[in-house]
Amino acid sequence: MVIAEDSGNRDNESHLALNLAWLEAEHGDTASAFDHLTLSIRSYHDSRNTALIHALLAILAALFDRLGRYEEAATIAELELELGKERRAASARRGSHVDWPPPNR
Which residue, 103, 47, 63, 27, is CA-closest to 55? Predict the structure, then answer.
């Protein structure tokens, strides 16, 4: 993380913080996971990069679930589902939508 911070490349720092948050959430270090998630959210927000918001919300929901905060986890997960629907609809309107997984044939 120090190398990413020292490089001055906030995208690398944000991406690494996101991945660290996920690993820390998986291994039960919730305090560090929240710290790294906060860094990543702040950086992506400041740069107006919303491309990875789904990953940030998924990790946040997982953290709340691990802490027994089920209502908060469900609220965030539901928000992510709605945002995903909106993203797919916007992609379809632009003609850049790709069905994944592909429909069974």
Answer: 63
- The per-residue pLDDT for range 87-103, each reduced to its tens digit, is 777 777 777 655 555 55
Residue boundaries of the structural domains of the chain: 2-94
Query: Do 76 and 66 touch, CB atoms closer than 8 A?
Result: no
The tokens describing 6, both together, are 């020292």
| Strand stretches in 1-105, DSSP E | none
Rounded to whole angstroms, how far apart are CA atoms 60 and 47? 20
Instruction: Report pLDDT for 103.
Output: 59
Instruction: Return the structure tokens found at 45.
Output: 């927000």
Task: Give residue 62's Cα distance to chain centre.
Answer: 11
Most confident of 4-8, 67-71, 99-103: 67-71
Output the six-digit token pair for 22. Answer: 């996920």
Angle at 30 between CA 48 and CA 5, to 5 degrees: 45
